[in-house]
Design a protein that fits this description.
342 residues; mainly beta; Tachylectin-2, Chain A; 2 domains; six-stranded antiparallel beta sheet; five-stranded antiparallel beta sheet; 6% helix; globular
Length: 342
């Protein structure tokens, strides 16, 4: 084979550079996108929250229905947090295996959840658009959204990061936020599991609030912070027994609903919902409130990790919860839906 002469090589190189400049005037190549994987989910309805019982009322909560979800897709599962983009319908979420997920909750004519549809997953990427395969960097646990921005929290390498929401192409974070709590106080696998926005018309003026799973101060209370606004600062949440905080969402009146979980080999897994008085969410204060619901293995629960609050079309205030199966054969992917009577 004849080799091109140096002059020809130089000419070809100039042509390639000219083409690159025309396509990418900034001088850099566009970052590749992580592939979006469409996932088929099979859902089985859960009609009774308490196993073997037809009761629907549990304190101020009424059980509407639930789903147990399975899929043949390798990446499905480990659902750590989710938020509705449309009330009770379209959602975005994070898996602690380093994935974003999007989808829709469907409901039957009686208003009960009937399945997940249009479900997709895509890997979190670095600034070059390459999927990140390090658990240390992608242990996503919490999520808050407002407008077109998602704010996600990560454990291990503790950070709070902002992303632009694009179901077709979730890119690297826009920026990292100061989470205020001294990094030395954060426990490696017990970091911030709650990221949520306070009501804009309340005392916190729409600020983002973060709460740790089990990073404790010297008095055994859980570190938390208000990241911006007139009340910016650190506060703590009083620990409830042996329960860890796995997610939270504000109620319209400014109270904070927390999802909490405990586990022991003797008793298995348990969950509870606790209502934190909004007036106690202030810098330097210890936030606390009553338990609204407590459930053990005699109920349809698993490793419950994600929560959101939304308004149904008839005005009812709804609470949705999902579980993280840790991609284990011993755990399940569940979605539960309750009406909260205020």
């Amino acid at each position: 084979m004849a080799f091109p002469r140096p002059a020809a090589l130089a000419g070809a190189a100039l042509c390639i550079l000219a083409l690159a400049y025309a396509l990418y005037p900034s001088g850099g190549a566009a970052a590749p996108s992580a592939p979006v994987e469409k996932i088929e989910i099979t859902s089985s309805p859960i009609r009774n929250f308490r196993i073997g019982s037809g009761e629907t009322r549990f304190g101020p909560l009424t059980f509407v229905g639930g789903l147990e979800m399975t899929s043949d897709a390798r990446d499905f599962g480990s659902l750590s947090a989710f938020r509705f983009r449309k009330p009770g319908s379209d959602f975005i979420g994070v898996a602690d295996t380093g994935f974003w997920f999007f989808g829709r909750v469907d409901h039957d004519p009686e208003g009960r959840p009937s399945g997940f549809s249009d479900f997709t997953m895509q890997a979190m990427v670095d600034r070059e658009g390459r999927p990140i395969d390090s658990k240390w960097q992608t242990d996503a646990e919490g999520l808050g959204i407002r407008g077109g921005i998602a704010t996600a929290s990560f454990e291990r390498n503790h950070r709070i990061s902002e992303f632009r929401i694009d179901p077709a192409d979730m890119k690297a974070p826009i920026r990292d936020l100061d989470f205020l709590v001294p990094r030395k106080e954060m426990r490696m696998n017990r970091g911030f599991e709650t990221v949520t926005y306070a009501p804009e018309d309340g005392p916190l003026k729409g600020a983002r609030v973060i709460v740790s799973e089990r990073s404790l101060d010297k008095n055994g209370n859980q570190f938390a912070a208000i990241l911006e606004g007139p009340q910016k600062g650190i506060f703590t949440v009083r620990r409830s027994g042996d329960f860890d905080i796995t997610d939270g969402a504000f109620l319209p009146n400014g109270d904070l609903l927390l999802l909490e979980r405990s586990f022991s080999y003797a008793h298995g897994v348990a969950m509870q919902l606790r209502r934190i008085a909004g007036s106690t969410i202030r810098p330097g204060k210890i936030a606390d409130g009553p338990v609204l619901l407590k459930a053990d293995m005699s109920y349809q629960i698993d490793n419950m990790e994600g929560l959101d609050v939304w308004r149904r079309g008839d005005g009812a205030l709804m609470v949705s919860i999902v579980s993280d199966d840790n991609q284990s054969l011993l755990e399940r992917n569940l979605y539960l839906e309750f009406r909260l009577d205020e």
